[in-house]
Structure formats: C-alpha cells, structure tokens
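Hey, can you fold this one?
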Amino acid sequence: MLRFSFAHLLPRAAMCCLCTALGTGSAPADEGDDVARAVLVHIRERLPASAPLTPADEDRVTTFMHYILGRFYYPTNAHDLITAANSSVDSVETPVNASALVEAAVTATVGALGHGARLLTTIGGGELAGTAATTRNLGSTRVVSLPSMSVSAGATHTCADFIRNIDGGSTDGITGFVLDLRGNEGGPLTDSSCLASLFLKKGQALFQVVSKQGSPVKYESEATGQSPISVPVVVLIDKRTDNGGLLVAAILQDHGRATVIGEQKDNINGAVSTLLFPTGTNRAIVLPTGEIRLADKHPLAAGVRVDISVPAQDENALLSAAQSSLAQQH
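Sure. Predicted structure:
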C-alpha cells in the first residue's frame, strides 16, 4: 500500500494512486458493533414507515463503522462518535429518507474522529494542483524551490522528476544547495524518501511508519541512479511546511547533511493518511492510519528544530543566512 503524508490537501498527482476500497480491515467487534447498532436504532426512530431502512443501508453503516474504527490510528471514544452521528441525523429536515440519514451519520462520524480526518467533496480541481518547482543558480549556490511534492502543477511524477529538477548530476561549479521547502505540506511518503535519498548514501535509515495493524515499516535511502549530492545543504522551512515536506528537513538535519533555516512550526501533522472511497458515496475520506517517526523513533509531530531563525517572508535575509551557513560548512 502506498502511504501518504499530507497536512491540508493532497497534490493532484497523489490522488490518482491513493484509492483504497472500503471493505477490508476490521474494528474491534464490540466498538464497531456498538457504534453501528446505536446509530441504526436512532435512524430507524426517525424514519417514517413509508421509507424503511433497507438491509443495504444497514450494511453500509455497519461496514463503515467497522472499517473506519479498525483503520483509524488514534484512540476513539465510541460515545462521542454516537453522539455526533445521532445529532447529525436529528438535524436532517423532513421529509427524510434512509439514504439522507445514513449520509448524515457517516459525515458526522468522520468529523468527530479529529486528528485531520475529513471528507473531500470533490476529487481534482485547481486547489489540489501542485505548484511548479523552480531551479536557479545564484553564483555557486543552486536554489531548488519545491513548494509542493508535485514537481509541476497538476502533473503526475516519479522520483526521476525530482532528480531532473534538482539536477544533481550537473554540479560543476556548485558548492552548495538550498532546498526551499516553504509551504510544502508533503505527499506520498515515497516522494519524501526519494528527495532525502538524493543527498544520502544508499541504505541509511530515514524514517519509519507505525500503523494500528502491525510492526513499523522502515524506510531507507535508496539508489537514485546518480551519486549522492555531497556539497553542503540548507533547507528552508516556514510555518506552512508540514508532514512529508518537514520530514525531509528532519531527515537531512538528523544525518548532519543540512542546516534548517526559517521559522519554527509548533503544531506538526505527523500522521500517515489514506484516501478512502466508501461504497455508496461520491465523497472520499482522508483518514489518518499511522504515525511518522524518525530513525531514532521519536515522532515527527514532536517537532523539528530550526537551526537558524529567519522570517520566512524575508527572501533576502533567508538567502543571505543560507549562503553564510553554506560557507561555514565548507
């Protein structure tokens, strides 16, 4: 399964390959059954005799509750979920039908989970498109801006696209790299792994993912088809850099490969999320299904330190601090 990290909305490139069908996984029988049973009882109470709850509706609620509670990484409170679902059912104006009440219950349950769980009403569209990456040389310093894990707006990509954009195979005269990750909220974890691997030797520990289902999945730096970039590196971050974007900064910092410059982020989303498409709805669910931990096992959400604090909107000050840091690393 592909694992994704995203703090706000997925880049469009990630959307096409994160489709997970509802129908596998299971919640603890008592919790899943308790929530489903209580919600179904309340739905029946609200339905008129002319619009009964069908077996298909019942199955949708039961399957949904079991799957969501079985996959959701964080602890849940069954009472709170039932209260939220039933309150939403009560808010549906008459005349009512089973489908409307089931939809209300499902929507409220997702909202009550917290930790970034949410419904997406549409898939695609301009707000999900990535922002184009740019590369420029300032004297002997190469500045690569990646405001999104999508290397070009709305385009699908592979690790090879990062390699081409960073152009690490053509470093004659380049004495330092500035990797600008301001605003980068992450994407597929394979992107974070690929990007970090460009600056590290093969086989180095990068991070691990802990899920509700099993043992941690460990990620190591991998061969990218070119020699690792060996010149000094600076990573720029701001308060919008999050999740998979911030993970790259943390990895390079932990391995002593980069100085992190910019603004400290206090509230970090360190969740691994999956995009689910429940049966019978035209909306997708973003569901946290795991936690990102660095190689030393501390959670990404615990924080990433800034080595040099500089206002993230002051471009000149950032580049000046970056070039000064690169010179000192030499």
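The chain has two domains: 12-116, 126-329. Let me know if you want another pass with a different chain boundary.
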